[in-house]
């Protein structure tokens, strides 16, 4: 594939692929790994489709050499993966597990040998269960333990890892996990969910300091960021009620993260958004300056826009942190993925340019996840002809290239995901991978989207070489 099917990007643009530990590693009870909240959640009846778990997942723990070879063949510059906190520190605090660190040593070495930059996410939702038993993200001590874990990983891997992501999608960890209940730990809470959001941000600030301290102590380079799943929010109508609902949703989805991180303060409309829940007594006066550590980059995960309208609030006794008088409504007239998400590529560019307008202090952006779940079916020739995913990637990368040309400072893109994997509460029936995984024998088969992305990367390298 060539020509108009392959959007062009600036020289030096970073291309990669992404995964997460619990979704692909397996080996849940091997080499000293402790249980996480997702191990517990998966074993709670009715939580995960068909009662599936990440116990084996893609068996990346044992098959990582094959996966690194596939990354090398793909031609990526970088690979974003997460270290599993309960694999490194099985109870979240206390003794470090040598076997867990040794696995990530082997993986990082394999990537470096293949000429692929390792980009490490320190938290992709797999909180050690022992910390959840002590209050989890609702309590400040979890943030302090996270900082110690971050320092442990940085001291061990920092001679080969330059780019660090502290947290992945704290919105999901705090609100989907503690208020919607669709992710671990699976609770529906008000103020405790907001406390979790705050302590996740405190954890980021503490970890950022530790990552930089480790780099300084060892004479290494380190770039530190955080990944947010920011949303493009569209009012369902021109009514003042829907406009106010979007304003509250902006705080829930976007501003509660961006304002503390970039401006050292929480949004002015917190009371309008959460009422009395927002005053929980869990913040300390110096926390906002701690949270607002300098960012070398902001990671952004993007999949789809949300259409929002006003909705009545439930009774106070039943209200959670996501009950803000706003609800999502369908976006019609567009294709939807198997997640039920609308495919609207232009909203990707709109989000990036809107962020630049709203936040002049925004650091350079890395797109740390983007992709689609599709109904992949192997053909008679054994290949997966995932044309819908190819179209999704082509159209979103084209929109991204347009946003960069219009002034968005985006420095890299990671496709989600390298492999079909455990898709949280959906189990294994949602496939995001550009490589198919047969969950019976765990064999890997590159899909048409893998080959399309490979062609894009080859064209980019050739263009980069031509421009010096």
TrEMBL record:
GO terms for molecular function: beta-glucosidase activity. Substrate binds at residues 23, 124, 168, 303, 416, 423-424. Pfam families: Glyco_hydro_1 (PF00232). Keywords: Carbohydrate metabolism, Cellulose degradation, Glycosidase, Hydrolase, Polysaccharide degradation. It catalyses: Hydrolysis of terminal, non-reducing beta-D-glucosyl residues with release of beta-D-glucose. Its EC number is 3.2.1.21. GO terms for cellular component: cytosol. The active site is at 169 (proton donor), 369 (nucleophile). GO terms for biological process: cellulose catabolic process. PANTHER family: GLYCOSYL HYDROLASE, LP05116P. Belongs to the glycosyl hydrolase 1 family. NCBIfam families: BGL. This is Beta-glucosidase. It comes from Allonocardiopsis opalescens.
């Amino acid at each position: 594939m060539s020509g108009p099917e392959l959007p062009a990007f600036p020289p030096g643009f970073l291309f990669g692929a992404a995964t997460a530990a619990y979704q692909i590693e397996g080996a849940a009870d091997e080499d000293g790994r402790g249980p996480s909240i997702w191990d517990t959640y998966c074993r709670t009846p009715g939580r995960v489709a068909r009662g599936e778990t990440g116990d084996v997942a893609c068996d990346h723990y044992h098959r990582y050499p094959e996966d690194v070879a596939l990354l090398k063949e793909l031609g990526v510059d970088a690979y974003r993966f997460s270290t599993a906190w309960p694999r490194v520190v099985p109870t979240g605090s206390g003794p470090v597990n040598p076997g867990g660190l040794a696995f990530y040593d082997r993986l990082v070495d394999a990537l470096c040998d293949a000429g692929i930059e390792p980009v490490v996410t320190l938290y992709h939702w797999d909180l050690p269960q022992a910390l959840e038993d002590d209050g989890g993200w609702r309590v400040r001590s979890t943030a302090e333990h996270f900082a110690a874990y971050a320092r442990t990983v940085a001291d061990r891997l920092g001679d080969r890892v330059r780019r660090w992501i502290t947290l992945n999608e704290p919105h999901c960890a705090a609100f989907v996990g503690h208020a919607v209940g669709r992710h671990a730990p699976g609770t529906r809470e008000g103020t405790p969910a907001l406390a979790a959001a705050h302590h996740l941000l405190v954890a980021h600030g503490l970890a950022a300091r530790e990552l930089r301290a480790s780099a300084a102590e060892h004479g290494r380079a380190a770039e530190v960021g955080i990944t947010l799943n920011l949303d493009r929010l569209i009012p369902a109508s021109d009514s003042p009620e829907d406009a106010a609902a979007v304003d509250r949703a902006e705080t829930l989805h976007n501003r509660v993260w961006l304002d503390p991180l970039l401006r050292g303060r929480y949004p002015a409309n917190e009371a309008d958004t959460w009422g009395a829940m927002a005053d929980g007594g869990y913040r300390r006066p110096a926390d906002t300056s701690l949270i607002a550590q300098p960012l070398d980059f902001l990671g952004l995960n993007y999949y789809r826009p949300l259409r929002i309208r006003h909705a009545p609030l439930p009774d106070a006794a039943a209200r959670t942190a996501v009950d803000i008088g706003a609800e999502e409504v369908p976006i019609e007239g567009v294709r939807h993925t198997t997640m039920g998400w609308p495919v609207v590529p232009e909203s990707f560019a709109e989000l990036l340019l809107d962020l630049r307008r709203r936040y002049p202090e925004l650091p350079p952006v890395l797109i740390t996840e983007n992709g689609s779940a599709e109904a992949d079916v192997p053909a008679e020739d054994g290949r997966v002809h995932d044309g819908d995913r190819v179209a999704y990637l082509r159209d979103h990368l084209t929109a991204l290239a347009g946003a960069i040309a219009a002034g968005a400072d985006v420095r890299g893109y990671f496709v989600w995901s390298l492999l079909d994997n455990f898709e949280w509460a959906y189990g294994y029936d949602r496939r995001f991978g550009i490589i198919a995984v047969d969950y019976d024998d765990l064999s890997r088969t590159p899909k048409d989207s893998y080959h399309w992305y490979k062609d894009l990367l080859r064209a980019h390298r050739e263009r980069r070489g031509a421009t010096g």
